[in-house]
Every structure is written in structure tokens, then in C-alpha cells.
Design a protein that fits this description.
The chain has about 270 residues and is α/β, with parallel strands linked by helices. It is about 40% helix and about 20% strand. It folds into two domains: about 200 residues, HAD superfamily/HAD-like (Rossmann fold, 3-Layer(aba) Sandwich); about 60 residues, no CATH class. The protein contains ten helices and seven strands. Helix 2 packs across helix 3. The longest helix has 17 residues.
């Protein structure tokens, strides 16, 4: 039985949006430069042998407390409203959905990011995604962030691809480890397209590509890196981070959808 569900899975920072999401308003509110913040997070990681994402999440809360900056969930959402996207991103989802529908395909969009989920939920495109998997905080009764609830790093990103594959979406649900017959899975890997921009996306890119899906490396000013990923066999497609109609990315992804349709008709 052919599966007409297609998953488009995106990293966020540097893939859909310019820079890191914390750098728009949050880090400046700490009276720090982005360079200063990330250098301190890296020092904290090395000094304490910490996981890097947990280090930066801890530093966010620590510095916010020192500067009397709000770490309420609503404040993080507000920070996300200032995010700017690469050309065509805001129109991309509806347009590509319509193209897929004309082929008889159902496209489902997901975020898998090491950025802050609450900030992504403040952006203009938040409603385009069926799930946003990203780092998030545990909040107390007063809506104040107290502890990391979810940490998404470059290797554990891959668990979310399996969740999408099996249709077991909740982070706490350990049924993800149970055996499932292929015909019971929601979206097969060969119907997945993963979009990323750097080395932290490589595990997901490789997983999707090795299982018959398509891995895409987009670039703004890192064309050499995306070219190397292509040469190393880690991705199928490289393209500038331009999501406008008629761009290289638009043309290549429509070819991918055409191929999925043909495979479904075999």
C-alpha cells in the first residue's frame, strides 16, 4: 500500500530564519553581544563537562536573573515576534502544500531545532507546523522558567524523525522504542525531506538520506560547507536559502514531490 503522506522537516536557526533566535532581542536585553553570550556558554560547557544545549539554556536563566529580565513563557513568545526569515519562507508552506495536493500528496511540516520552542511559537509561521520540536523550559505556577523540560541537540534530534515516522509524537512517550510494522507507520523515511544548514544537522540528514528520503542543505553564506556535505554524500541537494517561487530550492523540491508521486503510482 502506497503512503501519500510526506514530511517536510526543518531545522530553524540558519535554515528558515536569519541567525540564532536568541540573538534577536533576548541576548541584547542582557546587555551582551551574541559573541559574548556564546563564548560564555562554551566556557561553561567545557568547564563543567556539560551538554552544550543545556549549558546555553542554563546561562539564559542565570543571566536573565542577574539582569532582572523576564523568563516567563509569554516573554519568550514575545521575543519570537521579531524573527525575520529568508526570502519566500512565509509564503512557502501554502504554496508547496498546494503543489503537493495537486499530485495527490499530503504534506506535513515539522520543526526539529536546538533553538527555543517558546520563541519559535511567537513567530509568524508557527501555525504552519504540525509539531515544533525544540528546546523548552519547565515553568512554575507563576509561568516562570525554572528548568529545561526538553533539550534538543544534534544527535538526539534524530529521535524526532522516528516519532514522525511512527506517529508517536509526545516527547514523554517511550512507545517510540517499540517494534512497529512498516505498513503501520505514519510517514516512511523515503517520504521525508529534511532541511538543514550545518554540521549539527548531519545526523538527521544522514538518517533521512540513508533510508531513501531527501536531505537538503541550504546556505546563505556557507556555500562551501553545503558543497562539502554534498561531496561527502551526506545530502542530496544544496541550494541558497531562498524559498521564493522559481528559486533553485523551489524547483528542486517540486522535483522531489514529482518523484514521490511517481513512486506511489508504480
Amino acid at each position: 500500500m502506497k503512503n501519500k503522506n510526506v514530511a517536510f522537516i526543518y531545522d530553524f536557526d540558519g535554515t528558515l530564519a536569519h541567525g540564532n533566535i536568541q540573538e534577536y532581542n533576548f541576548i541584547p536585553a542582557l546587555n551582551m553581544t551574541s559573541k559574548e553570550f556564546w563564548e560564555e556558554a562554551n566556557e561553561l560547557k567545557i568547564k563543567n563537562n556539560m551538554e552544550g544545549v543545556l549549558a546555553y539554556m542554563y546561562l539564559m536563566l542565570k543571566k536573565a536573573e542577574e539582569k532582572n529580565i523576564s523568563v516567563k513563557e509569554s516573554a519568550f513568545v514575545e521575543y519570537g515576534k521579531s524573527v525575520t526569515f529568508y526570502p519566500g519562507v512565509e509564503e512557502w508552506f501554502d504554496r508547496i502544500n498546494n503543489y503537493g495536493a495537486a499530485l495527490g500528496l499530503n504534506i506535513h511540516h515539522y520543526i526539529v531545532s536546538s533553538g527555543i520552542k517558546e520563541m519559535i511559537e511567537g513567530t509568524s509561521i508557527k501555525d504552519k507546523f504540525e509539531r515544533i520540536y525544540a528546546c523548552s523550559f519547565l515553568y512554575n505556577v507563576d509561568d516562570i522558567a525554572k528548568w529545561p523540560a526538553v533539550c534538543v541537540n544534534y544527535t538526539n534530534k534524530t529521535q524526532f524523525l522516528f516519532r514522525i515516522n511512527k506517529g508517536i509524537f509526545e516527547v514523554y512517550d517511550e512507545a517510540i522504542n517499540d517494534k512497529m510494522e512498516e505498513d503501520k507507520k505514519s510517514i516512511p523515511f523515503n517520504n521525508m525531506v529534511y532541511f538543514g544548514d550545518g554540521l549539527t544537522d548531519v545526523p538527521c540528514m544522514k538518517l533521512v538520506k540513508d533510508n531513501g528520503g531527501v536531505a537538503v542543505a541550504v546556505h546563505k553564506d556557507k556555500e562551501m560547507l553545503s558543497s562539502k556535505l554534498l561531496a561527502d554524500g551526506r545530502v542530496n541537494i544544496t541550494a541558497p536559502a531562498d524559498y521564493e517561487e522559481g528559486s533553485k530550492l523551489d524547483i528542486e523540491i517540486k522535483k522531489v514531490l514529482d518523484n514521490i508521486k511517481e513512486r506511489n503510482n508504480e
